Amino acid sequence: MSVQPAIDADGHIYELPEEIRPYLDSKWRSRGTAFWPQAQPWDTRLGGAIAPPRDYKRGISAKQQVDIWHGILDDYAIERAVLFPTGAGGIDKLQERDFARAVMRATNDHFSADYQTDRLFPVGTLIVREPETAAREIERGARELGLKAFVILPDGRPAALGDPIYDPVYEAAQACDVALTIHASRVFSHEWGGDKLQTFSEVHSYAFIAGIMANFTSVLCQGLTIRFPKLKMAFLEVGVTWLPYYLDRLDEHWEKRAEQDMPLLPGKPSEVFRASNLKVSLEGKETLLRETIDFVGVEHLIYATDLPHWDGEFPENLESLRDTDILNAAEKKAILRDNAAALYGFK
After folding, report:
1. Could you list the residue range(s) of the whole structural domain that residue 61 is in?
2. Which ranges in 222-328 belong to alpha helices (H)?
3. Which of 42, 47, 74, 165 lies 20 to 30 angstroms, CA to CA, from 311?
4. What is the pLDDT of residues 336-345, one digit of tens each?
């Protein structure tokens, strides 16, 4: 019996600064500082008790990671994987702007040259705090490097992502037909109150969803999908079953304050979402998946492995989606393959 082919909309790599360094302009190459701000040093793998899948450890080369990924695709009938950095999204938070621009360009050059294959598609980094700089890098990345998407972390900027100050970024992404992917993060969790919590599990559980929801609120309520109707955007790594609750909450406020607070929206936020190109990723094992699909529509959901991160549920998540009886064949095809193909422009 054949299985439904998949596209991994959110896998990861462990990028190495020493492999980025050769791509830096010569004036920066000998510099010894970190290439992006570091996170709070939590023991994510519990001293080795949580083993990495397929011996996918930090510190291995890009070539080794590409070989591992090709093996994963072959073994599990995954056609393509979109690969996100684990740390380099934080380049946007560097305060030294000339250095940040140099690291951004070098990182994207490295990703394109050393991770990109006919089945692996690394995601570029951006300095979104400098919208014009980010717009130029989108154009360069799409036209010269073959990048199909760029990652944006939720935090570290003066305003949430629906703000018009970022319009040059959205204009460039829409014109180049590339995806902007808002990826959850805990690195700057203090922005969302994560510094008030005690344990890694508390911070990780809370900060991921808090950062995504703040920017999702801004994107939807500030009418980004109305202003840029062809813009492709996704919110990643917090699941999907929060959508019915939160869209209901936004609808309530629209009903009472639309003219004042959401003047660009032609209807309820839930209706605007359903009509948009916005995508949200799931990683399996979500008990309200059926209800979520019935509420928002299957066309907004994409599948992710989250490999090789400590909390990934692969391959069980892929197998459960392929085997579940709560989805019909068309819904499985949409979630596992077609929606991601549309987001990332795969033919």
Report:
1. 6-34+49-344
2. 224-227, 243-261, 269-274, 289-296, 316-323
3. 74
4. 999 999 999 9
